Every structure is written in C-alpha cells, then in structure tokens.
Amino acid sequence: SDGSSDVCSSDLPILTERERKIIQHSFYHNRSQKEIGKILGILQMHVSRLLRQALKKLKKAMQNDLAGAGK
Fold first, then answer.
1. Are the C-beta atoms of residues 24 and 7 closer than 8 Å to each other?
2. How far is CA 17 from CA 52, 66, 70, in A?
3. What φ, ψ does residue 25 adopt, rounded to 5°?
4. Of the four, 16, 17, 23, 71, which is 20 to 30 A from 10 by CA?
5. What is the pLDDT of residues 39-64, one digit of tens each?
C-alpha cells in the first residue's frame, strides 16, 4: 500500500484508534455505517455516534489551527 488510503495515528493524533478506523472506512472506503459496524463488531447506532464525535474533534482542531494561523 502506498498509504494514500490509510489513516495512521500520526495523521489524526486527536482521534482514538476506533474513531480513525471509522473515518477511514467511511470516507476512504465509502462504506455504510451498517457495514462499518459489522467490520468493527459494533452497532450501527454506535458507529454513528463515534463518527459524529470524531468529526466534532476534527472540526475543533481545524478551528484551533486556523485561529492560531491568524496570529
């Protein structure tokens, strides 16, 4: 693998391993929440919650980066 579709811990250090896997399956492999749940052995509802949580963390981190860049 050339790493283009792999999200490693150094790419997204603010996310847990499970959150990184959900982001990877969802956005890099275009899988449904139901499929991701089967792969990770968790309910689709939990995938939805974790995805929302991960995206919230990423948004906050990006906003912090942008705020820091403006100084």
1. yes
2. 15, 25, 31
3. -65, -40
4. 71
5. 999 999 999 999 999 999 999 988 88
